[in-house]
């Protein structure tokens, strides 16, 4: 393939990758900061630290594309950025193995494997800063790798074009600091370059001094975005960095470093070797996932080969990996897996070098060019086939669905106070990008309490009254201050209808503390779908059950099998979203339970348990407690065991289960063990006030303390045959047969029930099949209140 043909093929492959990225992209924002990034890029706002000013400017240009939604346009920025990175990998690998007859195919292989590796693909379809950051990082790095040898060939003499390139790269390096902090990985190879070509640097020192100055100018210029845009007071203005003190705070993310494992608050530089070690192994675990255990050895082979043949390429690349790994290990964050993409790009280059090394072995099978070409393309596309079902996010409309369900029947101009990254990201996105319910004022609770600038922001951009009384309350000295401040905000705005998210009632408002949630005594919290509606204490308003008819465009995505994510933060974000829906049902169940409507309470507790995220035992636990309180011991035991199966080491669950079993034992402290015929045993528990006797023929009768309700146990002889055949032999009657059919009991293989009636009194007859034994159980009368005790007794039954 020559010239024009290669160019057409290259464009075709790039278009193919672009189409795959496009069709697997979500129609809306993703998890964590995606909504904040989209909002800030759309309005030239100031997002969370460090602000990403260069991405904001580039992203804003892409929001002007005449195609699709704002999210689609920013996703296209990620697509294009990823294609730039892939093109650079292709060019670098092809340069390294240019002596190979399969140089083009090897370079294509490395690019394809990277294109469809999990993390690279995940961010190529996301609204985030990582794809653009890596494109710029590797563009500057490759330019440096090209420039050094070129200057050596010119004996260190720099032409005007070379000077322009040095100055341009220096300026680009400074400006690039306005992307994601992972761009800092350029620092180590930059220092290596200056040392490696120190003679050229010394001979042209003023050029490099000017370059250093330009880098500083570029960094200062790009970060001047923060005070300039903050002064304009955009709707999203995190930290309001209008002065030097606030700019410093914003750049370093002051206050975001925390290590409080007891509250699950871990972020930033923790100073904890345990966290460093976990991050180190997590890095290598994900490295294997990106390239698979089958291909990862090629990465190692390629790194060794590159070290031996191309040290001037090896050292800058390995330094990028080492700096990136150090960053990942020392700094713990929610987007940790996405930071690692920088390393995966380098490893893709090593992968190409490793494949070239393997092809150089004189295996007879490798002498067939078509075989090698087919192998390269086939294996290169394996990651695409493997990850496509997982990374096809075309139906992932979780954010838009959540917004519709949360805002359902919320009053015009209302105030919704919430907490967590999802709430902050989503409400900014809906207000400034989609315009969904932009009449609603959203308040992020923890930011309202912690940051004075955030309260000023509300005063500037909304008609909320945030009085001096609120400022007087907030002194960071009392865990009740948050509740008092929110109550005061409500009192300051009597004409506004307020809502809060349930998260504020169960999570702390200050990370690293065990307290500080919302627990008002001034207002009543009325369940309102995914929210609580704040009403007066004496309000007689009742919930509208239609609010719990949540809308899901793709209901199958809300089953108990969660989407697959390698990113821990994305897993947690999905879990929190599922739990929000579950809590919505749970709080309605609590409302009905307090109102005395146990039937509806049970329905909504069950729905909460069904909607709760997989592995979250709290909704099973609550349903178990409900059943225990209703005297339904078998159901309580079932759901306690489900909760413990999901979290066997959870101390609260273990305590609840032990308390429940102790309560059962206190009501039934004795165990009656009967050894009937040929060593068969029947074990069960019964209340201490009951009387249990053994008959002449080994039958056991349990009589309740009312002397009326009885349970009779008998061991029946069975000489082979199926249960159906055995039942045909049981012709004894106990009155009129009303009904019969299969039944369910714990700890037995099979059960069958018959309902008898004599003179208006109904009794059950059960046959319990366990191995080659059959136990007959007669119980009644059925209308007795003691049937609840029967359920508990049978839940402890053990037939052997």
From TrEMBL:
It comes from the Bacteria. SMART domains: TPR. This is Uncharacterized protein. SUPFAM superfamilies: TPR-like. The lineage of its organism: Bacteria, Candidatus Gottesmaniibacteriota. Keywords: Membrane, TPR repeat, Transmembrane, Transmembrane helix. It holds the Pfam family TMEM260-like. The chain crosses the membrane at residues 7-24, 76-97, 103-121, 128-147, 167-194, 206-226, 286-307, 314-333, 339-359, 371-390. PROSITE patterns: TPR. InterPro entries: GT117_domain-containing (IPR052724), TMEM260-like (IPR021280), TPR-like_helical_dom_sf (IPR011990), TPR_rpt (IPR019734). TPR repeats lie at residues 617-650.
């Amino acid at each position: 393939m020559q010239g024009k043909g290669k160019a057409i093929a290259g464009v075709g492959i790039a278009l193919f990758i672009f189409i795959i990225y496009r069709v697997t992209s979500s129609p809306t924002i993703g998890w964590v900061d995606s909504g904040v990034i989209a909002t800030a890029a759309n309005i030239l706002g100031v997002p969370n630290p460090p602000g990403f000013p260069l991405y904001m400017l580039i992203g804003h240009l892409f929001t002007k594309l005449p195609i699709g939604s704002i999210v689609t346009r920013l996703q296209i920025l990620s697509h294009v950025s990823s294609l730039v990175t892939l093109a650079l990998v292709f060019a670098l690998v092809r340069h390294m193995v240019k002596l190979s007859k399969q140089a083009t195919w090897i370079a294509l292989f490395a690019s394809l494997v990277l294109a469809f590796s999990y993390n690279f693909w995940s961010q190529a379809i996301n609204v985030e800063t990582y794809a653009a950051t890596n494109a710029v990082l590797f563009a500057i790095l490759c330019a440096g790798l090209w420039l050094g040898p070129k200057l050596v060939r010119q004996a260190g003499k720099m032409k005007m074009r070379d000077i322009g390139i040095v100055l341009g790269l220096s300026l680009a390096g400074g400006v690039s600091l306005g992307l994601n902090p992972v761009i800092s990985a350029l620092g180590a190879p930059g220092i290596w370059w200056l040392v490696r070509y120190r003679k050229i640097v010394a001979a042209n020192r003023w050029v490099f001094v000017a370059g250093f100055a330009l880098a500083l100018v570029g960094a200062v210029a790009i970060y001047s975005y923060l005070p300039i845009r903050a002064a304009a007071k955009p709707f999203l203005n995190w930290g309001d960095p209008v002065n030097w003190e606030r700019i410093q705070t914003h750049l370093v993310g002051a206050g975001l470093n925390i290590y409080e494992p007891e509250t699950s608050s871990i972020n930033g530089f923790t100073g904890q070797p345990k966290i460093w070690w976990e991050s180190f192994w997590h890095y290598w675990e994900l490295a294997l996932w990106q390239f698979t255990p089958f291909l990862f050895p090629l990465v190692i082979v390629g790194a060794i080969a590159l070290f031996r043949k191309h040290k001037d390429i090896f050292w800058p690349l390995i330094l990028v990996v080492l700096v990136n790994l150090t960053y990942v290990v020392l700094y713990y964050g929610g987007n940790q897996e996405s930071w690692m993409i920088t390393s995966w790009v380098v490893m893709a280059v090593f992968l190409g070098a490793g494949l070239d090394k393997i092809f150089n072995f004189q295996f007879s099978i490798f002498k067939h060019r078509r075989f090698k070409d087919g192998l390269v393309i086939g294996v290169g596309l394996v990651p695409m086939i493997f990850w496509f079902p997982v990374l096809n996010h075309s139906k992932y409309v979780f954010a838009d669905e959540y917004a519709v369900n949360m805002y359902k029947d919320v009053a015009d101009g209302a105030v919704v106070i919430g907490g967590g990254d999802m709430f902050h990201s989503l409400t900014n996105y809906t207000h400034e990008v989609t315009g969904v319910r932009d009449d609603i004022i959203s308040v992020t609770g923890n930011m309202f309490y912690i940051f004075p600038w955030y309260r000023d922001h509300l005063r500037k951009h909304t008609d909320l009254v945030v009085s001096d009384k609120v400022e007087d309350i907030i002194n960071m000295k009392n865990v009740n201050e948050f509740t008092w401040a929110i109550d005061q905000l409500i009192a300051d705005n009597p004409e506004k209808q307020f809502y809060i998210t349930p998260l504020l009632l169960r999570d702390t408002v200050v990370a690293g503390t065990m307290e500080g949630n919302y627990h008002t005594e001034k207002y009543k919290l009325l369940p309102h779908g995914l929210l609580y509606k704040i009403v007066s204490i004496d309000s007689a308003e009742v919930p509208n059950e239609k609010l719990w008819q949540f809308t899901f465009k793709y209901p199958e995505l809300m089953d108990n099998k969660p989407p697959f994510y390698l990113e821990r933060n994305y897993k947690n974000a999905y879990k929190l979203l599922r739990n929000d829906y579950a809590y919505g049902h749970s709080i309605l169940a609590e409302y009905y339970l307090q109102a005395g409507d146990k039937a509806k309470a049970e329905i909504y507790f069950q729905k909460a348990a069904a909607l709760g995220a997989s592995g979250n035992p709290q909704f099973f636990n609550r349903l178990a407690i409900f059943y225990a309180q209703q005297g339904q011991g078998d159901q309580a035991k079932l759901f306690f065991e489900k909760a413990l199966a999901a979290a066997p080491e959870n101390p609260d669950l273990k305590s609840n289960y032990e308390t429940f079993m102790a309560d059962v034992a206190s009501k039934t402290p004795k165990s009656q063990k009967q050894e009937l015929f040929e060593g068969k045993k029947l074990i069960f528990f019964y209340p201490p006030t009951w009387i249990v006797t053994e008959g002449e023929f080994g039958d056991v009768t349990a009589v309740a303390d009312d002397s009326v309700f009885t349970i009779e146990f008998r061991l029946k002889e069975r000489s082979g045959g199926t249960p159906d055949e055995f039942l045909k032999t049981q012709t004894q009657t106990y009155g009129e047969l009303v009904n019969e059919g299969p039944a369910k009991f714990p700890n037995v293989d099979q059960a069958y029930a018959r309902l008898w009636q004599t003179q208006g009194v109904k009794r059950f007859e059960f046959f319990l099949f366990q191995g080659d034994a059959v136990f007959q159980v007669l119980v009644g009368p059925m209308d007795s209140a003691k049937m609840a005790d029967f359920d508990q007794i049978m839940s402890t039954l053990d037939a052997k």
